[in-house]
Amino acid sequence: MLSLNLEILMEFIVYFQNLTIMNVDLTYYKEGLIRSDRIILGQAITLIESDLVEDRRLADELIENILPKTGSSIRVGVTGAPGAGKSTFIEVFGKYITSLGKKVAVLTIDPSSQKTRGSILGDKTRMEELSRDSLAFIRPTAAGSAAGGVSGSTREAILLCEVAGYEVIIVETVGVGQSQVGVRGMVDFFLLLMLAGAGDELQGIKKGIMEMVDGMAITKADGDNVAKANHARADYQNALHLFQTSESGWVPRVITTSAVAKTGIKETWDMIESFLRHSANNGFFERQRNQQQLSWFYSALDSTIRDKIIRQSKDALASIEKRILSHQISPARAAQHILENLTF
Ligand SMILES: Nc1nc2c(ncn2[C@@H]2O[C@H](COP(=O)(O)OP(=O)(O)OP(=O)(O)O)[C@@H](O)[C@H]2O)c(=O)[nH]1
Ligand SMILES: [Mg+2]
Nearest 5°: phi and psi at 109? Predict the structure, then answer.
């Protein structure tokens, strides 16, 4: 507990020092990352989340510089409804991964708070054991940023963790629309955690999410919950067979797990490993990574153009909004009009 608090305190001290000094440069970040300095990794994530123009410039330079050293981790997304047991599961799962001698980074996205230095405390104390593990790094990331699209900063945070030598990167997101789709687009394996309910298991789950997942884990399968969880597992497994078959050719598996009884943890890892073997063999792994890279580009392009327009055409936008609302111009024509008057 003491060492945990000290570490958090250190991070805050260094963070505030940097706010005042801010003369750190590319070499400082790059070398820090390469020697796997956790404090500098944390600072680099703060840098890429920053909206300040000069920070963004340095962040872009840093990312470009490290790109050749990225891509070697296994990227796993974990999603599920609030309270499904994601953080508790990730703590136990993360400990299992470090017990294999692998370094694990956990990035949590909190869609409700854009810039959340404050929630570091909450997340670190919730994954207390894992955050004390020298092979683990835990960090909440902001949902939106200047790095492009909803998920820009998390994507960049993944790259930073990879350069710092993290071999497995887990991205936790609460199961709400935009953030979930965003995370699906940046990970190799997408795991959905579900709590077995009392009634009809399949009612509460949308077809859309079923099509996105590579695996499901029914959580809290302990005590009185075991029978219910097994039942739910069979139901979901049947349902998943109906959603045949994604481009990967992989049929998602469903397992039961308990973070308390520590069951289903090795099974989850084994499932991910067999997915990786499968998708490496048929070329899907690389295809998916390539596709994700390009869709990141297009979403960055969208948000860059949008930012530029909003900065350059503030007055024109205000007046055209009025014309749209008084039916003098159609929204589509208005958009064209704004674009035609943009200078690049
Ligand atoms: N019995 C039992 N309880 C669990 C298990 N895993 C988590 N819980 C409890 O479920 C509650 C929610 O767990 P979290 O891990 O915080 O859930 P979460 O999905 O991360 O929640 P949010 O981040 O708020 O969306 C906590 O009170 C946990 O103690 C488990 O395996 N068995
Ligand atoms: Mg959580």
Answer: -105, 125
CB 256 near ligand 1, within 6 Å: no
pLDDT (tens digit per residue) in 165-208: 999 999 998 766 667 788 999 999 999 999 887 444 555 566 67
Residue 71, Cα to own-chain centre: how many angstroms? 15
Q: Domain check: are 160 and 272 in the same one?
A: yes
Atom 29 of ligand 1: nearest residue by CA position: 88
Helix or strand run (H / E) with residue 126 = helix 119-126
Which residue carries 């230095």 as its tokens? 117
**E-assigned strands of the chain?**
74-80, 104-109, 136-141, 168-174, 189-195, 215-219, 253-256
The verdict on 107 and 185 lying in the same domain is: yes
The finding on whether 62 has its CB within 6 A of some atom of ligand 1 is: no
Cα–Cα distance for residue pair 322/320, rounded to 1 Å: 5
Based on the domain organization, do 106 and 250 belong to the same domain? yes
Q: Kindly identify the ligand whose nearest atom is closest to the C-alpha of 112.
A: 1
pLDDT digits (tens, 9 = 90+) for 90-126: 999 999 999 999 999 999 886 555 444 444 445 555 7
Token readout for 340 is 């035609």
Give yes or no: residues 8 and 55 share one domain: yes
Query: Which protein residue has the closest C-alpha to ligand 1 atom 5?
Result: 220
Look at ligand 1, atom 21, and give the residue with the nearest C-alpha: 83
Domain region containing 296:
288-340
The helices-and-strands tally (H runs, E runs) of the chain is 15, 7
Q: What CATH number should be reported for the domain holding residue 214?
A: 3.40.50.300
pTM score, whole prediction: 0.86
- Residue 175 CA: which ligand 1 atom is closest? 25
Q: Which of 88, 192, 255 to mutate to test the pocket of ligand 1 (most atoms within 8 A of CB)?
A: 88
Nearest to 203 by CA among 232, 180, 223: 232
State if residue 140 touches ligand 1 by the CB under 6 angstroms criterion: no
Residue linked to tokens 């991964």: 97
